[in-house]
Amino acid sequence: MTTLNIEPEFTKTFVPKNYLNIEHQNNVENAFTKLHEISAQHSQQDPAFQQTKRSDSQKQYIKYAQCLTPEQIAFAKEVSIHKPGFGWNDNIKQVAQSILTPEIDQAIKDYFGSYYAIMFYAPRTLTYESGINNPSTKWHCDASPTPSLMLMCYLDAEEDHGSSTLFLPESTTKVLKEVGYIYNEVEHRRSDIDDILAHYQLDARVERHPFKAGESILFAATELAHRAQAPRPGCARTSFDMCIIPSPVPWDKAIDMGYTPANKPLSFKGQALRLLAETGIEQTNGPDSGVIRIEENGGIVSDESLLFHLRSIFKEEAFAQKIYNDLHRNPIRYSVLTIGELIVLLKKSFKEGLNWGQGFNLTDIGRFTDVIDYEKAFLDSLLKFSTEGKPNPDAIMWPIPNHEQHPR
User: Fold this and answer.
1) What is the DSSP code string of 250-295?
2) What pairs with residue 228 in β-bridges?
């Protein structure tokens, strides 16, 4: 008897692997990967820049910290809550400086490996009524660049409104991205996804922090599924939010140089190049625009050449794009990256990611075989064009495809 594998009704609203499109749009097309790399390079050349060294596996996706005193909370409410659309001025700068305590400042620098800038800021008030149809109260990830962070400072205590920001584990979020719940259409977001979590047997633990007034949360809004918890009926919660992106100079210096934060959420398109231009590191389309450079020594010198090699290695273009996005979670040092080192890195990722104690599925076997086949072809090419053992090492060795004995 044949058993039909019928997918649940909710999967009809899913957009599988749409996160790859979101990441490509923000990280590559909107140049946030380039901004991240340039920011890390410039920051780490600055003797004043300090970073707490930690591996990528130790990267903190959530950080809580008490930032504002009662007096600072009152000031933040005075300059923001009753003045919608307020522009950047000394009062707003004072609020931002209060929230960006040394502890928060260091956590941001540690996460990016660089200085940072404020892309936009905005006060947000959520009530029980406004939360009913608000997309932020449904489980989601922000459609933001991978190198970005959200910083929210609660101006009211949890005991005053019963609200918080809820988070699911990183492992659960990754699966929800793969199957397509995360980054489906906004109208298909849900505040209750217990049936989805049960169907895929995912970790359903929810992290909920009881915020004090003046306490902040810094989090990676693309890496952890989250949602705002609506306040109790008749209550409201207000937060002062900031979107944080990498920068080659400190945030206040970026503002002095012309990168003024927006006073409301806005599109990420053009922001990376605008920041680089304002800080004097403008990226222009020169004669090499659109050209993929392949170094004669096997070096990989740009995003374009890295993606070119990954697409040459893997038959699945979507998987090549995923590896490319994963590699860009940290700045890439193109000055030392070679094809040989890329192969070693890929083999190491397979070693750590596959369960060697049991059989592999056909997809994993195919991907691993792609790497081995590419390495064999790479080594064969090196041997063919090596001068070792040749009678005249300085002679130009032209391939002869129709040679009777040694066609090449």
Assistant:
1) -HHHHHHTT-PPBSS----TTHHHHHHHHTT------TTTT-----
2) 165
For tokens 């820049």, what's the residue? 49
Tokens of 400: 């002869």
Cα distance between residue 331 and residue 51, in whole Å: 14
**Distance in angstroms between the alpha carbons of the first and the last residue of the chain:** 55
Contact 325, 318 (CB under 8 A): no
CA distances from 43 to 47, 49, 146, 176, 248 (A): 8, 6, 19, 35, 6
Model's pTM, two decimal places? 0.72
Cα separation, 210 vs 188, whole angstroms: 28
Residue pLDDT tens, the chain, 408 long: 444 456 889 999 999 999 999 999 999 999 999 999 999 999 999 999 988 866 555 577 999 999 999 999 999 999 876 565 668 899 999 999 999 999 999 999 999 999 999 999 999 999 999 998 899 999 999 999 999 999 999 999 999 999 999 999 999 999 999 999 999 999 999 999 999 999 999 999 999 999 999 999 999 999 999 999 999 999 999 999 999 999 999 999 999 999 999 988 889 999 999 999 999 885 544 444 445 555 555 568 777 778 888 888 898 888 888 888 878 776 677 666 788 888 888 888 887 777 777 777 888 888 888 988 888 887 777 666 555 656 665 555 555 656 666 665
